[in-house]
Structures are given as structure tokens and as C-alpha cells.
Amino acid sequence: MSNDKDMPSSGVSPSVLAAAEEFVRKELAASDASHDYAHIQRVRANARNLAQLEGLSPEATALVDLAALLHDVRDWKYSGSDGATAEAVQGFLTAHDVDSDTIDRVLDIISRVGFKEELGAGGAGGGAPGLSLEAAIVQDADRLDAIGAIGIARCFTFGGAKHRVLYDPAVPPRDGLSKEQYMSGGAQSTTINHFYEKLLKLKGLMKTAAGAQIAEQRHVFMEQYLQQFKDEWEGRK
């Protein structure tokens, strides 16, 4: 139960944040290194940095902090349920007497983080109507951890955990994926294809100016890596 006198108006107290850290650490204890507690720590650090750069208030930053901590609890890629995250997060926050308005705001932020939420009939780039600045910051923070050097490492870690083929030149990346196609995976889900189907699209989907600036260099690094990978694959280097 949280009775902190220093609770911000967002409804996020220091004790709730501490409890969330412990909750998430236990929830992700068995996760592979692409979605473990270290990933959460990096996203949280990214979110705090973006919040500062975007001039977010301390109250809103506390909300961002909590949502960044909780965003990957029982992720659908591991739980098999698209609603498992919201159910678990709501249960945790309710058990810690977080007010209903704050719970709704955290759940809204978390529901907007995933790449799949921007996939429609025409694929990525459908926009994000009604996205709050807090949600934009957490979304960008998570996406920054999916690109660049760490993004490359996470991509191959996840591919290995899912027993995906590393690369098959005969299997082209899928263009214009729908949400359903993305979630179902399929025979064309090679690890290298994932760069073209998702990771290289993230730079253009950043929502904050600060996030877009950071993403630029990380995007270039991935492009350079992919060129080196293909040169080595074909014996050119």
C-alpha cells in the first residue's frame, strides 16, 4: 500500500516505483537477453533522457518512468496473449492502491508502445492519433533500444531464442506487413529479414524530435552492419 506524502500529482509514488522494479525483475527473470530486465533498464534510461530533452514535468516524468518499467510484462511474444500485459499491469497497480486515473494513463501508454499497433492493412506508418507526449516518449525509448548496436544484438538474440534461420537470400523480406502477419511470424521470419520488416522502419516512426535525432545515427550503423554482413556472406570481404 502506498501512502507517501511526497506522491506526485500523477499518482506515482517512490514506493510504487520501487515495487514495480521488484515486480518486473521477477516477471522477466526467465526471459532471454532481448527482453530481460536489462532491456527495461535501458528503456527507462532512454525515457528519462527523452523526458528531460522534451521538457516534461516531474509529475509526467514519474508516469513515464512507471510505464517504461512495466511495458514488457508478459509481452505477447512470450505469453501468447495480446491482453496479458494490460491484465498483469492493472492487477499490480490496483494491488498497490494506485488511483484509477493513473492506472488508465499507464495502460494507455503501454498499449501504444508496440510496433504492431501501427500496422494496418497498408503496413507500417499508419500514424498514431491521440498519442500523448508521455506515450510518445516511452514508445521512442523502447524503439531506440531496438536499433543501433544494441538493437542488432537483441535481434540476433531473439532470433536464436525463436530458432529462426539467420539469413536466406532466397527469401525476401515481406513488405507492407499487417498486424496479423507480423504477429503470426511465418516461414519468412528470418533474422536478417526482421531488419527490413521492422528495425529499419523505426527511424521514420519516431514521435519526438529528440528521439528522431538519436535514432539517425543508430539507423546508419545498422545499414553499415547489414552491408558488411552481406559482403561477408557472399565472400566479398
From TrEMBL:
Coiled coil: none annotated. SUPFAM superfamilies: HD-domain/PDEase-like (SSF109604). Residues 32-156 form the HD/PDEase domain. Pfam families: HD (PF01966). It comes from the Eukaryota. This is HD/PDEase domain-containing protein. It comes from Astrephomene gubernaculifera.
